[in-house]
Amino acid sequence: MRRELGIARCGLACCLCSESEGCDGCDSGSCPDAATCEVRACSAAKGLSHCYECAEPCRRGILAKIKPRAFTEFARRFGEGRLLDCLARNEAAGVSYHREGVVGDYDDFDDLEELIAFIETGRKTKG
């Protein structure tokens, strides 16, 4: 885990991502999607560093997907530091952010609250 990369504006875990080797996060200047990212443009226009700082519910862009939406909601409720702590603990316990491509254990959910509970505990409550 590269904790110093933290969480992207949209909630994706840059700290765990293995897909963008040359990317150092949304605001690093090396983000390959910076010019086209709808979430980045919205949060920047609002003067926010992360979507979890915004009170408005949103499914814009990548936030239509459950994983970034759940990570964003977790950070809103408990803080980014706690989210990073849980992700580090889960990774050490074998929870995979990316198994093949961009799909991992956090993608096995359809229910937002179940995924938030999984982030917090590292254990699936169903199935």
Automatic annotation (TrEMBL):
Recorded superkingdom: Bacteria
UniProt protein name: DUF3795 domain-containing protein
